[in-house]
Amino acid sequence: MAVYTDVAADDLADFLKSYDVGELLSYKGIAEGVENSNFLLHTSKGAYILTLYEKRVAADDLPYFLGLMAHLCARGVNCPQPQKNRDGEVYSTLAGRPAAIINFLEGMWPRRPNVMHCAGVGEALAKMHVAGRDFPLVRKNPLSVDGWHTLLEAAGPRADTVQHGLFNFLQTELDYLTARWPGDLPVGVIHADLFPDNVFFLGDKLSGLIDFPFACNDLLAFDVAICLNAWCFEQDYSFNATKARAFFNAYNSVRQLTEAEQKAFPLLARGAAIRFLLTRLVDFLNVPEGAFVKPKNPLDYVRILRFHQSVASMADYGVEAPKLPA
Amino acid sequence: MAVYTDVAADDLADFLKSYDVGELLSYKGIAEGVENSNFLLHTSKGAYILTLYEKRVAADDLPYFLGLMAHLCARGVNCPQPQKNRDGEVYSTLAGRPAAIINFLEGMWPRRPNVMHCAGVGEALAKMHVAGRDFPLVRKNPLSVDGWHTLLEAAGPRADTVQHGLFNFLQTELDYLTARWPGDLPVGVIHADLFPDNVFFLGDKLSGLIDFPFACNDLLAFDVAICLNAWCFEQDYSFNATKARAFFNAYNSVRQLTEAEQKAFPLLARGAAIRFLLTRLVDFLNVPEGAFVKPKNPLDYVRILRFHQSVASMADYGVEAPKLPA
What we know:
The structure is a homodimer. By secondary structure, chain A is an alpha+beta fold. Chain A has 2 domains: about 10-105, Phosphorylase Kinase, domain 1 (2-Layer Sandwich), CATH 3.30.200.20; about 115-315, Aminoglycoside phosphotransferase (APH), C-terminal lobe (Aminoglycoside 3'-phosphotransferase, Chain: A, domain 2). The first copy, chain A, contains 10 helices and 9 strands. Chain A has helices at about 10-15, 55-60, 60-75, 115-130, 145-155, 165-180, 220-230, 240-255, 260-285, 300-310; strands spanning about 25-30, 35-45, 45-50, 90-95, 95-105, 185-190, 200, 205-210, 215-220. In chain A, the strands form 3 sheets. A 5-stranded antiparallel β-sheet of chain A has the order 1-2-3-5-4, covered by helices on one side. Chain A has a two-stranded antiparallel sheet with strand order 6-9. Chain A is globular, with a radius of gyration of 20 Å. The termini of chain A are far apart. The mean pLDDT of chain A is about 90. Chains A and B meet through helix 1, strand 1 and strand 7 of A and helix 1, strand 1 and strand 7 of B.
């Protein structure tokens, strides 16, 4: 939530000369993205987002992230369209940083998701999974089982300063998941971070998916589990079966979860919970003194994880069993 | 440079129903304004800025600030146009805060002002002074001589932790200015903060003046002096006489500085320097531990102040004496 690098108007106007985006009319730093600098541009051709990538690691993955958005756009998924410069490149350099321009998507993310929103995101997620099938690049998910072990080591016994006994709880859960994590489910491109603030709506109609810096190749149903956790729990962490039903039905209407995916789902949902629990825990333990940004409470996801630990099958979600493919 | 209050899409859409600004398409928190929350809105009718006023003091002055912008717009000054709701009010309440909507001005503020920019701001400032003549509301300048004394007391001997001897230097200067501050020069509405980041250009052409929270009634030539300091010194604090000449000539082409204003100008420029020196000094001495925003260096203005102390008359600025009115 910041702008780390300012850009002079002249420099930006020069940069834009190598793009076919029209004349620059204005640009504003926007309070989005925790690791990059983002600007909303108005030009004679429309609105765009300019991102300056502040970290080297992200830059190495830019061909994947930007290539994926272009691939998805070409297949009718509503997501930002990376703009190519006159050399055909989707990113180049501005203010000493890798920089990319994507078109601006109108829409608002739902602060209070309702059942219609949950259905919308289920359908859009499935369409993204289908459209990603023939994307040629591959990026391993750094935040799957191996990554969770690294995160738990980084937190270490300090985890108990957040909640008594948390380290052992996580160690036990991680051992359980590691021993059982499935290796034979359908894989493909996943968004891996499709929280409400990354999904735009105009009214109840989904207008676009944004923010792909966690996208990677992993189990498709793991992405579904991440979304279920992000969209179908209330603020008091009660599970909303009506939203879940709408979400699953919409997903299955585009891409039917296989029998194996359904069987594994409670386990995947536990993994999806521990993934965010662990990154939030490490962030929480490493907040700089007097930092501006308040870290998210890692314990929110302890409650979601405990819920899934009590679930044995899809039926326990109160979700009607999706029809299996014939 | 922050968004302090988030607003839910539903709440914002409800709020906008009482305005004639079209259907909401998107809104982004923008990294501008240090005391308020600002959002850039796209609607079916165009682009707007929504401001949530976070401090009570600002709210008390809203009728002045918003009324002034409407007054200036009506007289052809390019500044944001406050939008009235169906009750005819230019501000109401959103998320528990006073909130106003102004139209969005295209344009970019010059990070490296050139001579053309300086001429543009001189002309626009004079037009604003002329257009403000019949504005009926009055707001005393809280940052004139009385306010400077309050600020110096707030800083106190801690000023010397910034630079050895600074407190005595400021006390002596303040006594000098207080004894001589003119009371008989032309007064009117002044912007009082017309720095480059508050002036938009498209190319070399000025497209608008923004950000009126310091606007008040005071000596018009004091506003000219604030601008001279903000626009006509280089980054090494050398005085650029070419820019100053362009600035004064453009101002005088619309509203000729009187003989008395010209005589008083070096003194007014010293006052304009100490005003920003003192607010920056107090901010600098009161930065919260670990704050996100880096305070501006108050010593920048010591150098500008020392320059003006060496000036005896307009001619010493290297500026050709403006023609006096017949």
